[in-house]
Queue: 2 jobs
Job 1
Amino acid sequence: MITAVELGLIYAIMALGVYLTFRILDFPDLTVDGSFTTGAAVASISIINGVNPFLATAFAFFIGAAAGVITGLLHTKGKIDGLLAGILTMIALYSINLRIMGKANLPLLGETTVLTFLRENRLLGTWVSVGLMFLGCLVAVAVIVWFLRTDVGLAMRATGDNEEMIRSLGVNTDNQKILGLALSNGLVGISGAVIAQFQGFADIGMGIGVILIGLASVIVGQAIFGQKFIWIAALAVVFGSVAYRLVIQLSLQAGLEVNDMKLISAVLVVIALLLPQWKGLGKFANRISIRSKSITTEDKKEVGVDA
Amino acid sequence: MLEITSLNKTFFPGTVNERKALRNINLTLTDGEFVTVIGSNGAGKSTVLNMVGGKLRPDTGTVRVAGKDVTRLADHSRARYIGRVFQDPMAGTAPNMTIEENMALALGRGTFRGLGFGVTKRKREQFVEELRSLELGLENRLKAKVGLLSGGQRQALSLLMATFSGPKILLLDEHTAALDPQRAALVARLTEEIVVRHQLTTLMVTHNMEQALRLGTRLIMMHDGQVILDLDSEQKAQMTVPGLLHEFEKIKGAQLDDRTMLQ
Ligand SMILES: Nc1ncnc2c1ncn2[C@@H]1O[C@H](COP(=O)(O)OP(=O)(O)OP(=O)(O)O)[C@@H](O)[C@H]1O
Ligand SMILES: [Mg+2]
């Protein structure tokens, strides 16, 4: 169970990246499936070649960000549909990842990683490591919340909220999208790097379906905890990621196999997307909806707005 | 302040859908001039505004703002000089951001946006001051999401956001058309006050002739991609709604005659 929580916290960094594109920029970015592995590959090969593991994880951020920039350029300058732009980058990254790794699976046996300290002190799988990882997530949440309140962060949010309007106020929305995609995939790269170090290897297939895990974390987390303020929305993503892992853990214990997990992820996301169409669920349904930031008449009553 | 010279625009040239939206438009607005623009549907009013705002590029002709040629500048690059309000009250604000965040977005018009906090105590004081001028009580609801406001409130806020951070030119495209009469009157009154207060050179499109006559210092009428009537403030003061309709019929009729004669 604790291992599931640990995994949830590491994947939460990726889910925060998905939150940036999916919710803030309103951009369905599929680059994630590729950039997750790229982060893992770059960090692993660096570590094997004697680079400090923390530096190697930082490399993963930059390489992920570069992947995001490419998707951004394809979409904004190349005028390619957002979904397709992400798919193109993702597919291209598959070959690049193989090149970086040299083979399909890259073990990190005996290497010093960012988790070596925890592992040697037998702290992995205990609440100490959960606490430390949670702290790491809190730092990420704090940085994101701070960023989204700066002038450039406000411009990025407005880009996802009303592009036409923010352009008329002098913001180059192309640049905002590219920046957002870079930050998002940078976080995804870090998450991939840490997962590789956690499981002890990088694998060419480890990124497949990661976007669904991210979406499930964002949608489920925010359905449960809401997104009234940015810090709540971001924290909800972290909890969503942990909740997702616990669901997976429970289904494994219930007799499903690891190979069924992609199906479970897909079903979870479908449920989360369909629920809001069910009027009977009222307020809960509103929270969960895909553009759930949209304001309902019910909210209006609460605030007591006149016509 | 605003100089439009020999603007031409044809949509879908060389196809069956070819549509000459603008035919050699020339228009010069002096500093602080407030021009109301009327004309039938499809006359080209919005197209002119879109070219000034940078949403559309003309086929030929130039647009100059304060002597600077902006014809080839992207919309966001000329936003420093130009404030816009659209017909749709939803268009001018970010619904999922708070009133103060929207104000902060507008305050940053045309400036570099860095890593300083978007909303600070000092900026908030300025926002309260500005919002108070709307007399809608929005200054007490800085943390409310803009999506919760009524159409009239949102349009008033859009107007404020389009004007308070120092543009030189204001473009209004039927910005009161989607509001009920009472709120339309409110937004029209605010428009008048704000234009005078900030000395804005203004182009305001409206289908309400009475409004076009009452507001502004000059009136132009467009038809079929051309300016067919241009009244200065004196002539405008003399003009009535039936008078305008009469002029319109007369000029339109004359044009038709010209064409039939040419055939
Ligand atoms: N983006 C566009 N693509 C194709 N045709 C366009 C486009 N914009 C405008 N037109 C055409 O150009 C002509 C002028 O349109 P415009 O929107 O400027 O009219 P308008 O005077 O604003 O009319 P209204 O009073 O209905 O708003 C119309 O025939 C319209 O169909
Ligand atoms: Mg129009």
Note: The pocket of adenosine-5'-triphosphate (ligand 1) is lined by residues B 11, 19, 21, 39, 41-47 (CB under 6 Å).
Job 2
Amino acid sequence: MSLALENKTSTSQNLISLLNSTAEKNTIIGFEQIGEALQYIEASGIPTAKNEEYKYCNTDAILRKEFKQIGNKFSTPATLPSFDAAINVYMINGRFHSVAGAEKGIVISSLEEAAGSSANGALVKEHLAVHALPSSDAFTAINTAYCQNGVFIRIERNTAIQLPVFIHHITQAVETAFINPRTLIVAESGSNCTVVDFYHAAEGANYFSTHTSEIVVKENAHLNHLRIQAEKENAFSVHTIEAVQSADSTYDASTFIFGGNLVRNNHLVRLLGKNIESHLNGLIIGTKNRLIDNHTYIDHAMPNCNSNELYKGVAYDKATIVFNGKIMVRRDAQKTNAYQSSKNILMSDDATVNTKPQLEIYADDVKCSHGTSTGKVDEEALFYLKARGIGDTSARKLLLQAFAQELIDKVEIPALQENILNLFEASLN
Amino acid sequence: MITIKNLHASVEGKEILKGINLEIKAGEVHAIMGPNGSGKSTLSSVIAGRSDYEVTEGEVLFNGKNLLELAPEDRAREGVFLAFQYPVEIPGVSNINFLKTAINEIREYKGMPNIEAKDFLALVKEKQKLVELDGKLANRSVNEGFSGGEKKRNEIFQMAMLNPVFSILDETDSGLDIDALRIVANGVNKLRSKENAFLVITHYQRLLEYIVPDFVHVLYNGKIVKSGTKELALELEEKGYDDIKKQFELA
Ligand SMILES: Nc1ncnc2c1ncn2[C@@H]1O[C@H](COP(=O)(O)OP(=O)(O)OP(=O)(O)O)[C@@H](O)[C@H]1O
Ligand SMILES: [Mg+2]
């Protein structure tokens, strides 16, 4: 047995024994799935750079360095942030905490409560840990085996929810923590809703999150999903978002990343019916030593669907930005339109951008394209601005804002758009 | 106002400006003509502070200050303005936001508070009228999708907004139709005063009928080889550069 393999095994074994001794009982996922998850972790270990999917994101090394010990002790925030004209949901220290606000046609509760209720129990059973398979990824497996009480959202048939749903994720670790939050969203047919996952910055010890979301978008439903990751240096995360769409539905997702130490997102969308629209967008500002790794996977299984991806990154200092975008077009997915674009700006010589588009096409009548570009700030434009009296810092800011604007414009909630703009400006050193 | 002494500049090791001497006083308009590639835009770029060019010898004094030591933004804040031969398109940055930022940074440099929103809007309106710039253009991204003539007019609009002390117009007339030429020239003439000065680079004597220069210089092969009054422009228009080329051709 090689030394590397020994280390690999010991990282996952160490993590499992730590989680076994600190985590509370998983009450929301069936024991069969938990068993499958544990088996997968044991067999696959924690991904190292040798794992193709984690080539630039050596989670094994990070866990060995920063999460050798786990105390899983937390403090509760004294005050909870809230957005006006919204339903505010709180996930505190990885667990469902509370909901403030309500609207007819939307059910929001803890997953535990939903699983035990006569109205929603069957839905939870039908979808939870069914779309995000434990065997797809080590962190999904860990989440499946050790997940804490998460949040359940059900948007009822043919209802358009007026208020956006803000899920506030706040983690205040007193001792090094490892949390496994879980989300299940079911947008029933003909429904329309906006859900915002807002990962807040918090003081405290290091924490690692494996937040796993399953999002079911039924026939003709429209789900707008915004994700704002604005955590601090103490935040490490591998998030998995699995969205499955039925015919004539729209899933419109935008991710904004302004902070966090390790930010890895596995964002997967499965287009399982005809006439589906899927949008995955991302704006990433990487500073300091941050590693921000977005893996997307768009799976076209049926004909006449459109998918569109636009990821833009700005890498400062010694930051690393990774974009890996896979598009699968299966044999039956004729008349698919799938577009992907990744544009990046390097702000320093020590920053790194790695992009990899992957197209796998088995249908013949499709339109697919991808483009990627990485460069510096346009020197001509910079000089033009300076020649009008605008200083270097402001000039770069103007150009970066111009670069980011089309993504920020996609946020249709004015107060949130302003909030994102402020986070964006603050993140440009 | 501005004194250029024995200015040498090169790009990528190749010398382009080979000893320029020029003095422009407040209230004056100087024109520079000269064949393609003679170094006219290089001279304006060096004055504006483009970093691609290395000044190897000489100096530029602007109201007593060593201009070459200043960052490009500080040159602009001191009152130097360059209307670009090829204005840059900046998608996503609105003309208005850009100008407001510029005005406020210039004001900050001078120790003045930010401009009031209503004063800014009034200024935009006034200067738009001066250069007859379509109001829609002011709200669009800087030069994005502007026609060649619109870009040039936008340069003059910016000049009018920033009210510089010394302005260089690098072939602002090329690409303009006859009406636009008149409008641009009118704009410049209205901005002319005893306190400011202009350096007008052009290939055509027509512009100089509208913006009447005090002096005309011929730049050839990195040097000013001939200077005169506005009659020199007429003479060049008639005879071309053949004589000058013959006289100053490299050995
Ligand atoms: N960045 C650069 N890199 C290489 N060569 C350059 C650069 N800038 C200018 N040159 C060269 O310097 C010379 C002078 O160019 P410049 O643009 O100053 O000419 P000009 O007099 O403005 O010409 P025109 O009338 O065509 O505008 C040309 O031979 C040009 O190719
Ligand atoms: Mg030129």
Note: The interface with chain B takes residues 378, 380-381, 383-392, 394-395, 398-399, 401-403, 405-406 of chain A (CB under 8 Å).
